């Protein structure tokens, strides 16, 4: 996940020998489709992080109360230190049978931050969030904790409920930096969309980050997930060395607005040689959606 990859990336800069042990077939498999997970793995390997997928940590081998190795399903890896980054669960057991919860214990809230009890509100890593496409989900991100905290604070202090503000729905928008590369995901992945039974198509392109006569031109990989009939955008992923990550903001906005790939293909994005090509990479991706 994010924490494991980010910590590994930072430690690699200190010239440490780093191993990531991942039980699943791909790292970062939640927010990214497989092709993007593979690119993130390559980015880690470029900075000498060793990634072991489809391999499960089974035992910490200790000596005088210190971990000296990790026994996995495939090998023994010697270690000076072990960082456990395997996700987490909401610590909400004190509210069991009092508040409605998801299966993992996350307190279910509505778009105003209310729980199943009228005057009880919840936000942050203990609470669910409303996803625009898939309903109540547990997505423990700082962005939602901050937004829901503000919404709840405002609503508690507002007498007239008609004046309450509400959250417009999550998209799971996430960014990560690995070595010289940037990656981001927003909305539904291809797998998410298929699990929801949506009739979708996808397109993946490689486009330039800016004009070729300006220094340091790099390729950006963009994937769009969209409705097969009406071309409404459901999700997007980006990957690249330079100027890739912040392009996700435009794609997130497009999903919120319910734009189609046909509309996105001709949006009037700004152009100057240091920042983009005359055909912005997002335009190019959208125009390949057939």
Structure keywords:
single chain, 290 residues, alpha+beta, FAD/NAD(P)-binding domain, 3 domains, five-stranded antiparallel β-sheet, three-stranded antiparallel β-sheet, 7 helices, FAD
Polypeptide structure, described:
It is a single chain. With 290 residues, the chain is of the alpha+beta class. The protein folds into three domains: 2-78, FAD/NAD(P)-binding domain (3-Layer(bba) Sandwich); 93-163, FAD/NAD(P)-binding domain; 174-288, FAD/NAD(P)-binding domain (3-Layer(bba) Sandwich), CATH 3.50.50.60. Helices cover 23% and strands 24% of the residues. The chain has helices at 2-12, 34-46, 142-156, 190-195, 247-257, 261-264, 281-287; strands at 18-21, 49-52, 57-63, 66-72, 76-78, 129-131, 135-137, 174-178, 181-187, 200-208, 219-227, 233-240. It has a five-stranded antiparallel β-sheet. The chain has a three-stranded antiparallel β-sheet with strand order 3-4-5, with no helix packed on it. A hairpin with a 2-residue loop joins β3 (57-63) and β4. The longest helix has 15 residues, at 142-156. The radius of gyration is 22 Å and the shape is globular. The mean pLDDT is 96. Residues 177-278 form the Pyridine nucleotide-disulphide oxidoreductase dimerisation domain. InterPro entries: FAD-bd_OxRdtase, FAD/NAD-bd_sf, FAD/NAD-binding_dom, FAD/NAD-linked_Rdtase_dimer_sf, Pyr_nucl-diS_OxRdtase_dimer.
């Amino acid at each position: 996940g994010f924490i494991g990859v980010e910590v590994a990336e930072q430690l690699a800069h200190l010239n440490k020998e780093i191993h990531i042990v991942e039980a699943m077939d791909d790292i970062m498999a939640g927010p990214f489709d497989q092709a993007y997970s593979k690119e993130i793995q390559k980015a880690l390997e470029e900075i000498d992080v060793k990634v072991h997928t489809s391999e499960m940590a089974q035992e910490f081998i200790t000596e005088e109360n210190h971990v000296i190795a990790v026994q996995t399903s495939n090998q023994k890896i010697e270690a000076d230190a072990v960082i456990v980054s395997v996700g987490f669960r909401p610590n909400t057991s004190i509210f069991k049978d009092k508040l409605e919860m998801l299966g993992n214990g996350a307190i279910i809230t509505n778009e105003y931050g209310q729980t199943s009890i009228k005057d009880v509100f919840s936000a942050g890593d203990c609470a669910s969030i409303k996803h625009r496409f898939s309903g109540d989900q547990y997505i423990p991100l700082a962005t939602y904790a901050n937004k829901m905290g503000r919404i709840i604070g405002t609503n508690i202090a507002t007498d007239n409920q008609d004046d309450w503000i509400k959250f417009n729905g999550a998209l799971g928008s996430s960014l990560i930096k690995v070595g010289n590369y940037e990656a981001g995901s927003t909305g539904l992945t291809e797998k998410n969309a298929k699990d929801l039974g949506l009739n979708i198509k996808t397109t993946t392109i490689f486009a330039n980050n800016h004009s070729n006569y300006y220094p340091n031109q790099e390729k950006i990989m963009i994937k769009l997930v969209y409705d097969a009939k009406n071309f409404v955008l459901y999700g997007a992923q980006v990957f690249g060395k330079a100027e890739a990550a912040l392009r996700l903001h435009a794609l997130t906005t497009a999903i919120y607005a319910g734009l189609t790939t046909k509309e996105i293909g001709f949006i009037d994005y700004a152009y100057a040689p240091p920042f983009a090509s005359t055909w912005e990479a997002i335009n190019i991706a959208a125009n390949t959606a057939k």
